[in-house]
């Protein structure tokens, strides 16, 4: 199914890297884990359920009687925050550091498990005073600071459902999400540090709240100290309101299937989907995978260099590491502030042993040059992960050689917001990993590559990635839209979860991910919907019509390229219009959605039924010869577009 020469190239990759001997000998998971899980996958997950401390033990591991609506660990009762924090304190690990926080300006904090218990107990009492009850939703819009984690766990402690919105999203995106999930309380900060400067967040919340009639309370963490107007009766400073609360709070046990959080992600339509994760299965999924795929040991220093506002942050900065009682690094800022060695300086300083990040940032480091990491001691690194997009073999090999001193295994982990935790990945102590391949479903997970009819393809062939059995950390539904949940994920192939990714099995049966097969783009590991950006463009008074494609890009994987038709009478003043439209998208959605290019064109290529042929636009964006145009309603359109773009019209 690949029309892309780069992908064919990829499949000729022949290198593979077996695990270092010592790691293999002491690995948390050994090769027999696959057999054990295959023999009885429910028994496997029942055993993984023992990672949690239950108030009431579950009576049934999986209830799939109402498929595709799963219930895991039925009958069980537990508290997520207790599992993440209190039980470690009770076990005598109160003084263990949960987070080494490193602020972008260089300020640092050490937060122990005892500190964390006090903070989230106060937070739970504060939310209760604001009237928040179990089952209510709370929106969180924060920078990467410890209070973001306190806020999430405070919600979990009282059974409230948190809905974190990445701090880069614009007011409109925030408002849509708040309204969709019905949040009445918002937790935010005055601002956060980004590239050496304070960047406001509360001002965005104020703008969003003009469109959210139900929000009655806003808690504001002081981070930057910037000027922050407060609305009387609605807004409260976190340090004044929360810090004064009692640090005593008894966590209540909730049902295993009690909702834990909602996270919005882009789908194929303009409307973002509220992915719902519930308590026990989700906690099992992320703690098991962090332990297995990073070979987590008690003295490891673990760092997921992602934002808490994305699922990677939820699962591998917050819940996975905390349920495992691990020590993590939490870094607020960008990799090049104040200098391009900042990450390596952090690894050197805290002796980080496990690192998890995205290919896009690795490609950026490659461009900056290997002499930068060479200045630091990275010898503590044991296992390194990659997530969010396919990692090209060159980036993989560079990561392993330059950062991992040619010894630390790289685990290329495939998963999604919907899957809650990693699904396909090498095991660091078992797999001889091939650069560019996520290899095999991990023990307990069953996935396959199928053709159009849903039949498993033979080795050496490509098709669609599916998950063939339910798993504990799977999404339970799309918030408020069960039909869309069934349609999107479970209707394409009978009884199988359709991931939306293309994939190929090589001759050994190992899996290579080939990117999305729907109208979803992946820019720097961020999921973006073409339709959502098109809607944003069309909301600009100058634009009549827009089509957006993801074009391959050396650094960001894909980049947003937009084609627009201006309205009759709208003036096309070249660069100024282009800049205006790019900024408009950044304002409407987020700077991460800002198109790399906007091309003003006279027409868009459409089929006779009026569907825009994005494939042809992609050819232009990627500077290829134009493919087959015979299905176009007007076959001269592509000529008109090219003439315009080369300055001929
Ligand atoms: C892509 C991020 C190839 C894929 C955790 C998926 C990957 C989407 C990989 C989910 C990988 C994630 N190799 N592609 N190792 N990991 N993807 O929801 O297209 O932000 O469907 O979750 O990212 O993105 P999401």
TrEMBL record:
GO terms for cellular component: cytosol. It holds the Pfam family AMP-binding_C. The modification N6-acetyllysine is found at residue 611. The keyword Ion transport does not apply. GO terms for molecular function: acetate-CoA ligase activity; AMP binding; ATP binding; metal ion binding. CoA binds at residues 194-197, 312, 524. ATP binds at residues 388-390, 412-417, 501, 516, 527. Residues 91-471 form the AMP-dependent synthetase/ligase domain. This is Acetyl-coenzyme A synthetase.
């Amino acid at each position: 199914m690949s029309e892309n020469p780069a992908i064919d190239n990829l499949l000729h990759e022949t290198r593979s890297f077996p695990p270092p001997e010592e790691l293999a000998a002491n690995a948390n998971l050994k090769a027999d884990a696959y057999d054990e899980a295959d023999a009885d996958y429910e028994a496997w997950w029942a055993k993984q359920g023992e990672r949690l401390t239950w108030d009431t033990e579950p009576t049934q591991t999986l209830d799939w009687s109402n498929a595709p609506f799963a219930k895991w660990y039925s009958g069980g009762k537990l508290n997520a925050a207790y599992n993440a924090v209190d039980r470690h304190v009770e076990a005598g690990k109160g003084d263990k550091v949960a987070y080494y926080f490193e602020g972008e300006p260089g300020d640092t904090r050490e937060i122990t498990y005892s500190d964390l218990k006090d903070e989230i107990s106060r937070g739970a009492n504060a939310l209760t005073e604001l009237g928040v009850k179990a089952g209510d939703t709370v929106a969180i819009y924060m920078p990467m600071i410890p209070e973001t984690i306190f806020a999430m766990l405070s919600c979990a402690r009282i059974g409230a459902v948190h809905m974190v919105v990445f701090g880069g999203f614009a007011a409109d995106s925030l408002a849509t999400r708040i309204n969709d999930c019905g949040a009445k309380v918002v937790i935010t900060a005055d601002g956060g540090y980004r590239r050496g400067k304070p960047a406001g967040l509360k001002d965005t919340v104020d703008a969003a709240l003009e469109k959210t009639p139900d929000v009655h309370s806003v808690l504001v963490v002081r981070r930057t100290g910037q000027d922050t107007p407060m609305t009387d009766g609605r807004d409260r400073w976190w340090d004044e309101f929360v810090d004064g609360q009692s640090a005593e709070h008894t966590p209540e046990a909730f049902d295993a299937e009690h909702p834990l959080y909602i996270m919005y992600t882009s789908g194929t339509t303009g409307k973002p989907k509220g992915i719902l994760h519930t308590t026990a299965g989700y906690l099992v999924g992320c703690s098991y995978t962090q332990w297995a795929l990073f070979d987590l040991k008690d003295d490891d220093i673990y760092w997921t260099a992602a934002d808490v506002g994305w699922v990677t942050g939820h699962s591998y900065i917050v819940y996975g590491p905390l349920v495992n009682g691990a020590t993590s690094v939490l870094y607020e800022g960008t990799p090049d502030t104040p200098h391009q060695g900042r990450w390596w300086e952090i690894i050197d300083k805290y002796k980080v042993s496990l690192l998890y990040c995205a290919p896009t940032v690795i490609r950026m480091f490659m461009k900056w040059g290997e002499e930068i990491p060479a200045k630091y001691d990275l010898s503590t690194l044991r296992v390194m992960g990659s997530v969010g997009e396919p990692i090209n073999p060159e980036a993989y090999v560079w990561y392993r050689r330059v950062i991992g001193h040619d010894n630390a295994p790289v685990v290329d982990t495939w998963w999604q917001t919907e899957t809650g935790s990693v699904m396909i990945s090498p095991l660091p102590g078992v797999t001889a990993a091939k650069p560019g391949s996520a290899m095999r479903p991990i023990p307990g997970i069953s996935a396959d590559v199928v053709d159009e009819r849903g039949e498993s393809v033979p080795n050496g062939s490509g098709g669609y990635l599916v998950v063939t059995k339910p798993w504990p950390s799977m999404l339970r539904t799309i918030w408020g839209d069960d039909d869309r949940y069934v349609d999107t994920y479970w209707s394409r192939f009978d009884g199988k979860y359709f991931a939306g990714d293309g994939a190929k099995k090589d001759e050994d049966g190992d899996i290579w991910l080939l990117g999305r097969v729907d109208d979803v783009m992946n820019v720097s590991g961020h999921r973006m919907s073409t339709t959502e950006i098109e809607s944003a463009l069309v909301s600009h008074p100058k634009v009549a019509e827009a089509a957006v494609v993801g074009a391959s890009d050396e650094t960001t994987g894909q980049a947003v390229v937009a084609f627009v038709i201006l309205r009759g009478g709208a003036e096309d003043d070249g660069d100024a219009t282009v800049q205006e439209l790019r900024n408009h998208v950044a304002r409407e959605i987020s700077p991460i959605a800002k198109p790399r290019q906007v091309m003003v064109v006279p027409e868009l290529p459409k089929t006779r039924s009026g569907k825009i042929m994005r494939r042809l636009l992609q050819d232009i964006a990627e500077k290829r010869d134009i493919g087959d145009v015979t299905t176009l309603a007007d076959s001269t359109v592509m000529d008109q577009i090219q003439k315009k773009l080369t300055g001929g019209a």
